[in-house]
Amino acid sequence: MNIIFYHPFFEAQDWLTGMAQRLPQANIRAWEPGDDRPADYALVWHPPHEMLANRHDLKGVFALGAGVDAILQQERQQPGTLPAGVPLVRLEDTGMVQQMQEYALACVLRYFRRFDEYQLQQQKQNWLPLEPHQQDNFTIGILGAGVLGGSVAQKLVEFGFNVRCWSRSHKQIADVQSFAGKEQLMAFLNGTRLLINLLPHTPETVGILNRQLFANLMPGAYLVNLARGAHLVEVDLLQMLDQGQIAAATLDVFVREPLPQPHAFWLHPRVTMTPHIAAVTLPAQAMDQVSTNILAIEAGKSPAGLVDIQRGY
């Protein structure tokens, strides 16, 4: 069994050593330009076109993240980046679920307890208790009900919040109201006070966080974008913040990363930013899952996290 590895940021030797410990029967190497030697599996993030093109002998391509939008976009731009018929597998959880729960919960509690407003008051040396929000008037809506969205919904329910989810198809999550399809999007938005975006990045979801969507939320709603920067129409958010329809926003992802220095988000008093750190790949857990999936494929079984190329997730 031959495995090739490529990641522009991860230390290759850590992965070669870790995967060798988990799959001692495999020959594992870091891919370099010009390497066209046989490979059964590829572990990648933003792989160069030449790495995978024409490798029809591959049994699986493993994207080293929960999202596969980057590699699918590469395929659209340079057909052949993904060899036809070769399964694409993404990471599921691998420690990202707890991280995403922590991040989302921190944002929800910050806005629910109005700590963001108290911080602004502190800067003005203004001592003024604010009327607290009430849970029965603080419905949280989550766009996306997959592994991450569903887990965040369950965690927020534990804290007593009214939670609803919207996704392409109905999902059954205990104590969470389910909405699905374009025909139910407006009903989902109506009455939502805080919106968390955890949608997959597909051509259909690009720009979904726009002026029309924001206008259907409760006045003074909050936005938390933890999915992809391409989901957000940035100028629409800025306008809705200035109009007060959106009270505040927390953004972990952006169209351009790192965010350019002149961007209006940097200094906006109602925008909180983090540098795409809501949930990062944890190598040990990721290697465990990839190894298990490789053994599943070798045994003729379907791997966890198999991507539907047409849907994009």
**Main pleated-sheet profile:** 7 strands, parallel
User: How far apart are the first and last residues' alpha carbons, in Å?
Assistant: 27 Å
Low-pLDDT sequence parts: none
Report Rg. Answer: 21 Å
Please report which band the strand proportion falls in: under 5%, 5-15%, 15-25%, 25-35%, 35-45% or over 45%: 15-25%
Order of helices and strands: EHEEHEHEHHEHEEHEHEHEEH
What is the tally of beta strands? 12
Mean pLDDT: 96
Number of distinct helices: 10
- Identify the overall geometry: elongated
Strand order of the largest sheet: 8-7-6-9-10-11-12
Task: Describe what is shown at a glance.
The chain has 313 residues and is α/β, with parallel strands linked by helices. The chain has helices at residues 12-22, 49-52, 69-77, 96-112, 115-123, 147-158, 185-189, 211-215, 234-243, 283-298, and strands at 2-6, 27-30, 41-44, 60-63, 88-90, 140-143, 163-167, 177-180, 194-197, 221-225, 246-251, 271-273.
Characterise the protein shown here.
With 313 residues, this protein is α/β, with parallel strands linked by helices. Helices cover 31% and strands 16% of the residues. The protein has helices spanning 12-22, 49-52, 69-77, 96-112, 115-123, 147-158, 185-189, 211-215, 234-243, 283-298, and strands at residues 2-6, 27-30, 41-44, 60-63, 88-90, 140-143, 163-167, 177-180, 194-197, 221-225, 246-251, 271-273. The strands form two sheets. The chain has a seven-stranded parallel β-sheet with strand order 8-7-6-9-10-11-12. Helix 2 (49-52) links the parallel strand 3 and strand 4 (60-63). Helix 1 (12-22) packs across helix 10. It is elongated, with a radius of gyration of 21 Å. The model has no long low-confidence stretch (mean pLDDT 96).
